[in-house]
Design goal:
447 residues, alpha+beta, Cytochrome p450, three-stranded antiparallel beta sheet, 19 helices, binds protoporphyrin IX containing FE
Length: 447
């Protein structure tokens, strides 16, 4: 019997919708949903893409049938940077590594990181001058990078920040290339984008191997992630130690996954707040009432309810991990359609979280949607900025604590205004960023 494909755009001969997809991420997927509904199929060159939008299907793929899928081709291609770290590894190995690393993200440990999150925010914030304009993407990238380095690896990385953010930019730029069929062969040629990226990757390696070498030299067990990874390898690895390469893969993955996403979420939050003064006002009220002038602590997290809702609503409209891709290991049935191995199933928080069935007036920024009584009315998987199931974000608790405390700490002293008008474009590749950065003007709340 002939395979029946889900309806979708036809695209060009051979290329299918590949160019529309890479040029128009993420709006291409949004259009697919608008035109074709909960399931839409398209060709991406030699590969088939299937976009699933309904929360029930998202649950089915990410949770119920997670074992029948692996990460998509694009993520697998990122092994060239991340090696066999948590984002890219599969199967038993992934589960074991996840068990080890998750110890660094239990509730008590994340609470212990709060002080550092607030202190570094205050320190970087004190360098802001009233009326100064700045690119807040750089500001937040620098801040979350320092927080991740300090809390997880016990390092002050002021000097490394530029290297890491440059490497991330190169990876983000290379991403569309990684999606090109046969790019693994093209990568062997000295193409300018590949060479730039390889250079950045070497510099990144130097930073991470530097962390590992220093810790091996001083032999301290500080209880941070790096110590846990070194220690746990003794406990669970049959007595053997993790090689430096394995440590490098895990550390690099968590380091990259653990700062860029939160930085993007905070940029989008300031962008949305600047356009919604009444919401900004309510946020100030909460921060003034809960914190006054004192430094926030981990206990304040549970009291900063409105701040939490502002961040949640910002990640609804601009989820930093805007799409998740999965490939079935065998033929997989979705409704009347068979999805074959080699196809990519796309599940996009960006698309599902803008669906008016779950979010009336979806483009309106309205944090009250995340009041518990409102959130309860929606299907659970209508909101999944952190994914779900066995591959759910390991750092979710860390990210909420960090995002809420940074936002509250900045709101104590500053208000940010848009300096360059509304953004014309998003830059969606590995993550969703404001294209060309985001320039904002700082106003001191005291003045
Ligand atoms: C707003 C901030 C963040 C967002 C939106 C986010 C989002 C995500 C998403 C959607 C996934 C699942 C990807 C998939 O299923 O294909 C993921 C995985 C992951 N995230 Fe996050 N993340 C954030 C912050 C963090 C932080 C702070 C850390 C660590 C410090 C972290 C570490 C990880 C790791 C290690 C994984 C891989 C988990 C696994 O496959 O076992 N993330 N993240």
């Amino acid at each position: 019997m002939a395979t029946v494909h889900p309806p979708g755009p036809k695209g060009l001969p051979l290329l299918g919708s590949f160019l529309d997809f890479v040029r128009g991420m993420p709006d291409f997927l949004l259009r697919c949903r608008e035109e074709y509904g909960d399931i839409c199929g398209f060709n991406l060159g030699a590969r088939r893409g299937i976009l699933l939008n309904h929360p029930d299907w998202i649950h089915q793929i990410l949770v119920q049938d997670a074992g029948k899928f692996q990460k998509s081709y694009a993520l697998q291609r990122m092994r060239n940077t991340l090696g066999e770290g948590l984002l890219t590894s599969e199967g038993e190995f992934h589960l074991r590594q996840r068990r080890i690393s998750s110890k660094a993200f239990v509730k008590t440990r994340v609470a212990a990181y709060a002080e550092c999150m607030v202190e570094l925010t205050q320190r970087l914030g004190s360098q802001l001058k009233p009326s100064q304009t700045l690119d807040v993407t750089d500001f937040f990238m620098g801040l979350t990078l320092r927080i991740a380095a300090k809390t997880l690896f016990g390092r002050d990385t002021t000097e490394d920040a530029a290297v890491v953010s440059h490497a991330l930019d190169e990876l983000q730029r290379l991403f569309p290339f990684l999606l090109i069929p046969f790019s693994e062969f093209l990568e062997r040629f000295p193409l300018p984008n590949v060479r730039r990226f390889q250079k950045a990757r070497c510099e990144l390696d130097e930073v991470i191997y530097g962390f590992i070498a220093e810790r091996r030299r001083d032999g301290r067990d500080t209880g941070d992630l790096l110590s846990m990874l070194m220690q746990a390898s003794d406990d669970e690895g049959g007595g053997g130690r993790m090689t430096d390469e394995q440590l490098r893969d895990e550390c690099l993955t968590i380091f990259l996954a653990g700062h860029e996403t939160t930085a993007n979420a905070l940029c989008w939050t300031l962008y949305l707040l600047a356009q919604n003064p009444h919401i900004y006002g309510k946020l100030f009220q909460e921060v003034d009432a809960v914190l006054g002038q004192r430094a926030a602590s981990s206990e304040d997290f549970a009291k900063l309810n409105y701040t939490y809702r502002v961040l949640a609503e910002s990640m609804r409209l601009f989820p930093p991990a805007w799409t998740l891709g999965r490939t079935p290991l065998d033929d997989y049935q979705v409704g009347p359609y068979t999805v074959s191995p080699g196809s990519v199933v796309f599940l996009s928080p960006y698309v599902t979280q803008r669906d008016c069935r779950w979010y009336p007036d979806p483009l309106v920024f309205d944090p009250s949607r995340f009041a518990p009584e409102e959130a309860e009315k929606r299907p659970k998987m209508s909101y999944f900025p952190f994914g779900a199931g066995v591959r759910k974000c390991l750092g979710e608790r860390f990210a909420w604590m960090e995002g809420v405390l940074i936002l509250a700490t900045l709101c104590q002293r500053f208000r940010f205004h848009l300096d360059s008008g509304l953004l014309k474009k998003t830059w969606a590749a590995v993550t969703l960023r404001p294209a060309g950065g985001l320039r904002m003007r700082v106003e001191s709340r005291g003045s």
